[in-house]
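Budget justification note: compute hours in this period were largely spent on complex prediction jobs such as the one shown. Inputs:
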Amino acid sequence: MPEVNTDKIFAAFLLRLEEVAQIEDFDDIEKEFLGKNSLLSEERKSLSTLNEVSRKKYGKLLQDLSNNITSKLDEERTKFKSKFFIQREMSDNKDISIDWYKSLGSKNHVLTNVMNEVVDIFAAIGYTVATGPEAETSWHNFDALNTPDWHPARYESDTLYLDNKLENLLRTQTSTVQVRHMQNNKPPVYIVAPGRVYRSDQLDATHSPVFHQIEGLAVDENLTFSDLKGTLEYFVKEFFGKDLKTKFIPHFFPFTEPSAEVLVSWKDGEWLEILGCGMVDPNVFKHVGYDTDSQGFAFGVGVERLAMIRYGIDHIKNFYENDLRFLRQF
Amino acid sequence: MKILKSWLNDWIDIENISNNEISEALESLGFEIENKKELNPNYENIIVGKVLEVYKHPNADKVRITKTDVGNNIYEIVCGAWNFDVGAVVPVALPNSKIKDNFKIDKRDIRGIQSNGMICSAAELDLWDDHDGILLLDDNLLPGTNFSTIYSSNDFIWEVGVTPNRGDCMSYLGIARELSAYFNKKLKNKKSNLKPTIGNILDADSGKIKECNSYGSVEIENFNVTNSSFEMRYRLTQVGTRIINNVVDITNYILYDIGQPLHAFDRDKLFGTISVRKANNNEKITTLDSQVRKLDSNDLVITDNDKPIALAGVMGGLETEVSETTTNLLIESAYFDKVSIMKTSRKLNLISDASIRFERGIDYKIQRYGLERFLMELKDNQSINYSEINVDDKGNLKNKKVILKYSEIKKLLGIDLKESFIKKILKFLMIDAEVNKESVKFTPPSWRYDLDRPVDLIEEFAKHYGFNNFESTLPQGVNKNNKGSYWDLKSYLSSVLTSNNFQEVQTLSFVNKDKNLLFNPEKKYVEVFNAIDQSSKFMRSNLMSSLIDVYKLNDEQNNLSNSYFEINTVFDTSKNIIYEDVPNQNIVLGFLTSSTLSSTDTRLKDQELDLYYVKNILTQLLSSYDLEPITKPGFHQNYSFSIIKNDEIIGHFGQLATETQMTLEFNNEIYLGEIYINKLNLNNLKEINYVPLSQYPFVKFDLSFSVPINLSAHLLVDEINDLLKENENSIEIFDDFQQENSRNLGIRIITRSYDKTYDDNETREILMNISQSLESKFNITLNSSKND
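Corresponding output:
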């Protein structure tokens, strides 16, 4: 019986491979060369008619052909597939440099961020947030804080009052919260009080009738001036960075004695004043009903000032205009 | 207060101490340095000239030509000033020199005559403002002398802040006293022997009132009102005082030098007894600035036979003012009460160098010395005669002894101070004290009003010890990382909103009445009594008006995003249940979003939002809550709801009234609301009810009911949940179709048993049960059901 020329069949198979245009063509080729009706199948069927020697020899020949076709087919199919996906992905051409999705809002106000940060710094060393009313009594805002009734801070040119007897006012400092807190809590006290305060100033580059302060108060046994220093140095380093230098210079506040201002050495070597502090004045302890030999310290820091220094914000008005061009930057 | 180094050196020897060291000293003593600068003006080619001839300019009437001896030459110089004549000694800016503002002087043709430089006024040399014209120099100066050799051109000036408790440091003497302790240097003495040559013509006393503790005066005759000395004019100008004449200049000079304000009267305009009293109500006086001042019984006046001649401590009277023709003077040196002067000066808005010092408190024993110093400044003036200095001192002011125990120092400062240090500081600060082993018994000096308690002296020691020399220690509270419920709650609410693209804002608390009326016409508003701006004198009663403003601003600015929130206080006059004696005020979370979130992206449509979007935000914020329709001013008739949680109204929300939206010209609907922070409990918001997962397959029904328009779909969901309460369920409204008066509601039910797989019969039974229960309970009709 005539044997088929396997080389010729393989050559025909290779030619067909060259015509492949889509992935399905591989299935057709497989059917054509290896399927039930393929020449190869026909030849295999006729093997039984041969003697043993010829059958073995021809059988091997057919098997080799079948193997070669299968492996070549797999190889080409894989090649085609990967080429196909590469080409398809090559046609996806998005310009990633465009920001189609913008975060619309989704931010806290920069002042809130600063307040959160300061609160976190003090919470880490055991301070809790305390609050008090913004519309206050003159007693809490001034008298209890050792500011006598003739003191210039009490003039109507500086303080916003809510009645003609000047009994109620908009608090000018968050120190009022220390008074309220001490009236209702015994020592030890470790609190911070972030919040709004008010002054009689027109809104301009450096003034605002509304601004924010964070007041801190610690009253505990044996607290000394060194503790005050260490606490504020810790705060400055946590907030502005470890490398920043601080210095304390004497100052005057009616409700602390000794009183100091804390300055930090800023980028250009300039010393910037960032907060006021001092040992709580015995008169304040007296007014809130504490023993006059109680001991503690208090400090107050301007939130707008912290933000302005840190971010180089030039205009206090920006904080309250709420233009998204400003708000989104933080 | 401005401190000139050369002047300070009159009191304490600091010439050889570097400016940096002095800056450091000032700062560590509590004088905040507001400004500092080196003074070294350039007087190159500016010399002394002597005018030899003056003649008319041929082509100009307003200027004259001079022949001026400039040392090695005689120059023709054209000059426009007329206050000098032949023989005058004047400063000349030669060609190739610079005067004020770096203005270059050169040879110049002035109407056909070449001017070889310029004869200068004080102002042109940047010395002081004067109106007289050319600066006339001492006749004895030789022509050609370098101007810089007669004028102390190299100096240093500090501008420092003096805290309100330290009135005693509002003078060179006071600053020097502080520095003396710092540098261990004794103060220099300024004393001289005075010999009165005339008797007093006028009587002067301190009156009957306690507000004038002492009144001192001296009379001077044969005085020539002219310019004060070159040095005095230089110094006063540097500290920012206007040069007037020698009388006024010397009083100002003494004020800066020792802190005692003086006032000069023209004695020839006085007649009787000079005294002090309180003004009568509606009494009037014309002050030096020609203003008629209406007084009341809080004001102090100096009187001449009971007629007011000066507003004590604040400003002199016009009638008794010293003029150029004055020859006889009465100089006043008094102590007036702090508070009284402060009240008058604030009331009349008249703040002077004198009033500032009186209101902080001047040395109550320095009145005589003030007058002595005035006379000492005249010591070269041979022609004058002066009387005895007369001081009427009531002696009411006396500082009390205070005892400070060393243990108190240690307790407050945490350090032991050496006795030698304590003694040294007390000595330099001139504090009279007995120092023993355990305590200091001290009497504050007459210039210190800030040392009446032990703690006051501790502060003094701490300051001189140096704040920066203290150790730093860090005390800590017991409850770490416990920020308290309010702060945690606020942070939680903010985080939910920001993660939903809400932007937090901070708006001012002042509004006009309309902004409160829009949402809270029922409330009474807190009003600022002395408002900064009459158009916004009310404290806001809601945050929504403010949020609308923010929305509007950013809409007009063409900024993207339309969702905002703010957490702040709102006010009204009702009773405050937490804090007595203050108006009602609550911290509120206000939020606002619009129906379209703007976007520039043409690939995507603007995001359309509706009421349900906001409701979802509420769910994220509050976990569970109920809504109850209400009618609320400012809101849409049908879309206005109370938010109820744990049987309490905790806020409200809805859609902005259509009319308001139109008035504001907003194209989009606005959804907004407020939540009362104090009614929330963070634990309730974060409540989690875990439902175990069933291991069995689900059955799913889509039911469609015909329902009334006003039926609350939520009731159906609740009912189904109740019927299937043994199962794990997901029940959702998937369709709400309304047309005229008919309404179809689609409900999708996915339910799983915890213990078996439902067969077809059981499934059908569940469906029947639900549809029948709902139909009978709510009087609705099942249109169709689908079950997969």
